[in-house]
Description:
Elements: H1 4-27, H2 43-47, H3 55-67, E1 70-71, H4 79-90, E2 101-104, E3 109-111, E4 116-119, H5 125-135
Amino acid sequence: MMTKWHKVLFHGVASFVFMLFLSHCASSPNPSAPNDVLEPVTGDETSSQTLPPNPTYQKLMEIFQGLGYEGFGMQFESEATLEILVQAFSNPHAANRQIRLVYTGLATSYEPKAQSLTIGGLRDANAVLAFIEKHVPLKPHPTTPE
């Protein structure tokens, strides 16, 4: 009959052996994998794969720069998403907020410590603005020395 202590010891040893096995498998090369999967890249092949300039993206980046926000990954968004973001951040209610970084993602959220705003899952500019007004605080007004 196993006591509680024996069960804990048994599970600890079993977990250690399993982790040891996984680390061995992860470090072992796969002999069935082909070695010539990747081809060398020449200089002129990469230049043709850059994204063409998008005027809506450029406008959004200008808006972010004017507001003091920094947008990441926006060049990969659809035209519809970019237009929603341009409409939302052109609105004066989106200005002067405690935002440093703006991302797009699966869900809309705000991280106060990093002053990071993620926009996702919202289908129009009014929903984005409503979230910003509700969850993102205004920047504090600077006090003037007397």
